[in-house]
Amino acid sequence: MGKAGDKMYKKVLIAVDGSEISKVVFERGIEIAKREGSQAAVIAVVDTTTMYNFASASEMNPSFLNVQAQVLRDQETAMRKFISSLKEYCDYGFEEEIRNGIPNKEIIAYAEKWEADLLVVGSYGRGGWVSEFLFGTTAEKLIRTAKVDVLVVKCKGEKE
What we know:
Number of strands: 5
Low-confidence stretches: 128-135
Number of domains: 1
Mean pLDDT: 83
CATH superfamily: HUPs
Strand order of the largest sheet: 3-2-1-4-5
CATH topology: Rossmann fold
Shape: globular
Radius of gyration: 17 Å
């Protein structure tokens, strides 16, 4: 145990995906950062796994790839707007990071680079139950692979 006054968490990384639950996740993460007097950062990852996994070789022509690139840009723009909306009602400063890739891997990579000591994530997000059934949740993957504490914020209506 540390001395009285020591921060339990110096750097809180909050993962959001633009869903309604990620607003609650953000609020919880900022609440912890404020209470601890910690630095906070928000990461959003545009999930590219579904874009390429289900495309057949015949679809990988230049026009299809252009459409995919536009979809990526649109999703990045949506994530930037979402994070900007969080800043509008938050009186606590935070860093922001937007990446493309596999969410759990990008979150872990940034957490290690930024030296986070707490990850705050939602129990599920945009993918919904079908994605969770097929691939497992990002939260589950983070719990298994993170080298730091992971706080999983339950979604409204979930069983306790």
